O-antigen acetylase
Amino acid sequence: MPNPLAWRPTRSLADEFSPRANSIGLLRLLLAVSVLVAHAGPLGYGLANYGFAFTRGQLDFGGLGVYGFFILSGFLITASGMRFSLPRYAWHRFLRIFPGYWVCLVVMACVLLPIVSLYERGTLAGFWTHPNGPFDYVWRNLITVQNQFTISGLMSGNPSGGAVNGSLWTLLYELMCYAMVGILAWTAVLRRTPRLVALMTAVVYLFVVSDWVRQLPVPNTWLYRRGDIGPYPVLGVFSVNSVLFLGLMFLLGASMHLYRDRIPMHPAVAAGAGLAFVGSAAFGGFLAIGPLAYAYLLVWLACKLPRWTQGVGRKRDYSYGIYIYAYPVQQLLALMGGARWGVAAYIGLSLAGTLLLAVPSWFLVEKPAMSLKNWTPRALAKRADPEPAPEPVPALPQVSIPTQRKAPETAAAPVGR
């Protein structure tokens, strides 16, 4: 029987990854569900996010999901930035994030929370006119900056408090990464000087590792807290730790795309990455070792999972809907006593309830919005989108710490407890 780990002529990531036949859709779905599972602890029972116990407080399942999203986004979005003109690229990114996000805000404020008001208070009196009411919630959070977390003082008795959606804060950091790729593509850095992206990745990685080393003498902590920067007009306040760590994950994915012809895809390398990932998560040192191993593992799985997984999410991508709707559904279930049936039942009910919103979100909002990706204003209709310059290797295609207040403790944050 042949040894699967025996070294053989190695194919590169560029050889192995097919834009039309990969398992990224399945991975994104699993990452979204992992955030839901992590939040079951605090939202249902007032506990820490699930996963912290296994990793000695380094990260939880929710953090793992968020980091995975940023790695895959870096890999895919960099390809998108290299394929399209800057206006077309920006239009695609807008369509992927904002229509679904805006409808989610309206559904939470004007559909779910009125139900909560009737359940808690038996009336809608004062709901619409509250100083932190539903219309304020939509307006203040319109551009993904989370300036308001509660609506009309509802759900304040829940185990984790009354935050309506503690997962949305990551979207602002995602948009920052999109903007970075747009600038790097517009300045031709992605095509002509990819070494600059590799250098950026190395610098951010060294910052993260230095923060880990700096905190080693302090018991029961694993990351030096750098605080916040800002506020900035419109964008508000940013967590430096979130910028560094989420930025590192995105840059790792971007670097893997840019150097895909030099990255070997071999089961022995994957096995080593798996051991490094599990070992650093279980015994310590995840910040120093885990990000590199995790990035390789995700992309390797995207190439190597069975063929039947390659169709998941290709025509029906529910991952974004699951991510943005899971938190309010879990809050609603916790309010109504859904957690009393046990953790497994609570997670199952949460997933089922989330799908009731995520599936319509895909068919009624996200998919129709993305069908407009080739739309051009009439005034510009005669100006064709410029063809991208040919690449030397095959091109590839293309998914939290609020800004003005502290994020709810239950959000899948990139810093541990």
